[in-house]
């Protein structure tokens, strides 16, 4: 079975101001920052148990969303692509990530007017798909596609419906399989993959995280867990309640390479 392999994971702590993060429309349930810290610690423990060495960055209270480190960079081959987040309040988060990744990779930056979030960049083992959303514009896609091409990868744009990121609606499990929620993108774009749908009720669980042969999934979605395990993958559940309130999920909390 083909799996996504990684050696390192960049993670960033939960800011004391996390309860002031960008909230999804209509979500106003209070965020428990202390519980978010505990859930983040458990998430990191799972990554380490799957063989990843953590590169841990301190939180910065100036950036309430900084724990969602995925949006700041994507590692493509020998390059660390430093992104330009689409939310103005998040611009600046990437500086600490640039410093950390610059110690192990050659960094290249995407700058304005291009905007691109890592949550819109889906890698399927041999190519990249980039969601066009309110966070990632055409210029962002074109800039990323150019860098991917220089590293011998193709990139395909994916126009998205009403959802924050591409990986909010679909994530790669390995072995040519994509877990996804229906209705947010043209499924024919992924015609070379096997698509595993989640139910309308379980849309949030479409964001999973494949790590070294296992799939980390969000606790509380037994139908999704059964569907993934039926494809031959081992699963590990983690709680994401406080990150869901901030519009985030499993892939958002790390950069794996």
Overall number of strands? 15
- Briefly note the structural class of the backbone: alpha/beta
In sequence order, what are the helices and strands, one letter per element? Answer: EHEEEHEEEHEHEEEEEHEHE
The gross shape turns out to be globular
In terms of per-residue confidence, which ranges show pLDDT below 50 for 5 or more consecutive residues?
A: none
Whole-angstrom Rg: 17 Å
The span between the termini is: 19 Å
Nearest-integer average pLDDT: 97
User: What is the CATH topology classification name?
Assistant: L-arginine/glycine Amidinotransferase, Chain A
CATH architecture: 5-stranded Propeller
Overall domain count: 1
Count of DSSP helices? 6
Percent of sequence in beta strands: 25-35%
Q: In CATH, what is the homologous superfamily? A: L-arginine/glycine Amidinotransferase, Chain A
Helix content: 10-25%
Largest sheet: 3 strands, mixed
Q: Which CATH class applies here?
A: Alpha Beta
Strands in their spatial order, largest beta sheet: 2-1-15
Indicate the topology.
Blueprint: E1 8-12, H1 33-49, E2 53-57, E3 73-76, E4 79-82, H2 94-101, E5 106-109, E6 121-123, E7 127-132, H3 138-150, E8 154-159, H4 166-169, E9 170-174, E10 177-181, E11 194-198, E12 209-211, E13 214-218, H5 222-230, E14 234-238, H6 241-244, E15 255-256
Parallel strand pairs: 1-2, 4-5, 7-8, 10-11, 13-14
Antiparallel strand pairs: 1-15, 3-4, 6-7, 9-10, 12-13
């Amino acid at each position: 079975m083909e799996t996504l392999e990684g050696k390192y994971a960049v993670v960033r702590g939960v800011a004391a101001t996390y309860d002031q993060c960008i909230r999804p429309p209509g979500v106003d349930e209070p965020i428990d920052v202390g519980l978010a810290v505990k859930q983040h610690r458990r998430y990191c423990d799972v990554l380490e148990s799957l063989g990843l060495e953590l590169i841990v960055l301190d939180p910065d209270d100036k950036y309430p969303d900084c724990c969602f480190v995925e949006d700041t960079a994507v590692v493509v081959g020998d390059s660390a692509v430093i992104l330009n987040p689409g939310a103005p309040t998040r611009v600046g988060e990437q500086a600490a990530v640039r410093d950390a990744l610059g110690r192990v990779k050659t960094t290249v930056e995407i700058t304005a007017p291009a905007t691109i979030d890592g949550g819109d960049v889906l890698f399927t083992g041999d190519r990249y798909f980039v969601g066009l959303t309110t966070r990632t514009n055409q210029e962002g896609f074109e800039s990323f596609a150019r860098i991917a091409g220089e590293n011998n990868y193709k990139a395909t744009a994916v126009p998205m419906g009403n959802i924050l990121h591409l990986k909010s609606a679909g994530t790669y499990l390995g072995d040519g399989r994509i877990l996804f929620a229906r209705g947010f993108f043209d499924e024919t774009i992924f015609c070379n993959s096997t698509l595993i749908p989640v139910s309308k009720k379980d849309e949030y669980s479409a964001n999973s995280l494949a790590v070294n042969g296992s799939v980390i999934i969000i606790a509380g979605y037994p139908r999704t867990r059964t569907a993934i395990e039926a494809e031959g993958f081992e699963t590990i559940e983690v709680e994401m309640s406080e990150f869901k309130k901030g519009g985030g999920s499993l892939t958002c909390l790390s950069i794996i390479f």
